[in-house]
Design goal:
Length: 374
């Protein structure tokens, strides 16, 4: 199953909104075939593994299939995987976790059992849940997985007081950030970042998907000469704005090839919950929030982030620098927000730390849960 999970992860960024799935077929301790879901609309992992075994000339009678997610039992872009598994001749299927998709949700396992196949479920279930966090959120909460990403100095500053932030990190870290973009359906910034940096927000890693650019711009201040609008006909651009934004400015954005998405406002800010609901309707699986300071703060303070990706550079900026987390005030160490570290990665002189926030309670985010903080 661990081998199947490793295979599944190879589909990250290419299969969404489908789940990453891997499968390995074994008999008498020997691997007969393996596969994973390569791309959205392509064959699923079970079909790939069966085809791999057959290319090698194997008869699958009496074999066991290890698969990281319950096989689907409905028609979508491809036929049901349950029928392919039943027809293959395998007699035992070991599954990491049940599919939260309401079209499957236990029905695939039931169909396999009805066909006389032995089914074992729950092997490496926690590992599968960690891998499929974004897919599970989309299927159960109808919202994308939100990754808040920023680069900072050792003393926690994202820029000096002048707001000039190019570059805190080195080339390897910046290349890794582009790889993160390639794994997400969209990358989000506020209009302040557009005005200050005129970013392109494209994936320039040379591989993977090109994410939709998303700008939070309540008053439609995105300049017509910005790189985003000048390339809106080539790479998708959504400008999310408030109900009072200028119709003339909205028309100009649409003529340039961009989409204007009108949102309600709450306490003077765009309704981010409404935004995530809309992106969920569009089947976005991951949203990468890159800044600036105000946008990152908003997602964090409203507890809408599922993951942090923090690039740390070995430099100091000092007390006048800008910080993402300076809104959080802990008067005692028992009130400190302690985050579960999911992954570390060395990138030349820099370090990438990734934290999973989906396991943190609301009270912890409010810095009041002393038991967890202790």
């Amino acid at each position: 199953m661990l081998q199947a999970l490793e295979l599944a992860a190879m589909g990250r960024g290419a299969v969404e909104p489908n789940p990453m799935v891997g499968a390995v077929i074994v008999r008498d301790g020997a691997v007969l075939g393996e596969g994973f879901h390569h791309r959205f609309g392509g064959p699923h992992a079970e079909v790939e593994a069966i085809a791999d075994a057959r290319r090698a000339g194997h008869n699958l009678a009496g074999a066991t299939m290890y698969v990281t997610l319950e096989p689907c039992c409905h028609y979508g872009k491809t036929p049901p995987c349950t029928q392919a598994v039943i027809a293959s001749g395998v007699t035992r299927v070991v599954v990491a976790m049940q599919d939260p998709d309401e079209r499957v949700s236990g029905q695939g396992l039931a169909e396999l059992r009805s066909a006389g196949i032995e089914v074992v479920a729950g092997v490496q279930e926690q590992s599968a849940w960690r891998l499929l966090g974004a897919y599970i959120k989309l299927r159960t909460k109808r919202r994308p997985w939100v990754i808040c990403k920023w680069a900072q100095s050792l003393d926690g500053k994202i820029a000096p007081a002048s707001r000039q932030s190019k570059w805190i990190t080195g080339e390897l870290a910046r290349a890794r950030a582009h790889q993160l973009r390639s794994q997400c359906q969209g990358v989000c910034v506020g209009v302040g970042t557009v005005l200050a940096d005129d970013p392109l927000l494209t994936n320039r890693s040379g591989a993977g998907r090109q994410p939709t650019r998303l700008v939070l711009d309540a008053r439609l201040r995105t300049p017509s000469e910005s790189q985003l609008l000048r390339t809106a006909g080539e790479v998708p651009l959504i400008v999310a704005t408030g109900p009072g934004a200028s119709p003339a400015q909205a028309d100009a954005i649409q003529r340039a090839g961009g989409e204007v998405l009108r949102l309600n406002e709450q306490a003077g800010e765009l309704d981010l919950g409404q935004l995530l609901d809309e992106l969920g309707r569009r089947q976005w699986t991951r949203l990468l929030v890159e800044g600036g300071q105000a946008v990152l703060r908003s997602f964090l303070r409203q507890q809408l982030a599922d993951e942090l990706a923090i690039f740390i550079a070995p430099c100091m900026i000092g007390s006048d620098g800008l910080s993402v987390m300076d809104w959080l005030h802990a008067e005692q160490m028992s009130q400190a927000l302690r985050l579960p570290l999911a992954e570390t990665e060395r990138l030349g002189p820099d370090l990438l730390l990734r934290f999973r926030l989906d396991v943190i309670s609301r009270d912890t985010w409010d810095a009041r849960d002393e038991e967890i903080c202790d």
